[in-house]
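BUG: 3D viewer hangs when loading the predicted structure for this chain

Environment: internal workstation, default settings.
Expected: structure renders.
Actual: progress bar stalls at 90%.

Input used:
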Amino acid sequence: MTARRTLALFAALCALATVVLGLLVAPYAPGTVDRWAERSASTLSPGLLNTLVLPTEPYVLIPAVVVIAGICLYRRNRLDALLAVAGPFVAIALNSWALKPAFDRWKGGTLVYPSGHTVSLVAVLAVVVLLIRFKAVAVAVGAVLVCCAAVGMIGLGYHYLTDIAGGVCFASAVVTAMRAALSPRRAREPSTG
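Structure tokens produced before the viewer hung:
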């Protein structure tokens, strides 16, 4: 299977997971897992929780996107620069304008599924994972950042754990689908028979 097909399959599976999870949790009150996560995270200090949420903030993510795109342009790779900017933008826009209203899950007077904070963070992290050579290191660091941010968002009452899981799946789906779409197609080899 080509890398392009692998990315497209991964994106489709992540999109399916977003929809299935949303259908299971969105119309209902928080479940056992959501309540457990909320109880556990709420025991931490507000200062720590605010610190944990920092990686999801626009004033952190926008400069990160600019730096990533700048490096891609410096290396004369316009398609990667386009992915660095468009991947997070498209994921955030689709989440805010389509998914959140479609799933209609509310918490504290705001739509919460999938988590917009998570979509923002994971979209940028997915771009990094797709663009660098040391993918295992990027995935490990990204997973730690997402887990820390999740604790902060849950503890501050921004989201349920299932909102965050949906955000991870959706951002991964959008960015990998865009990467697959932007990947150059291999020319077919002429038939010899």
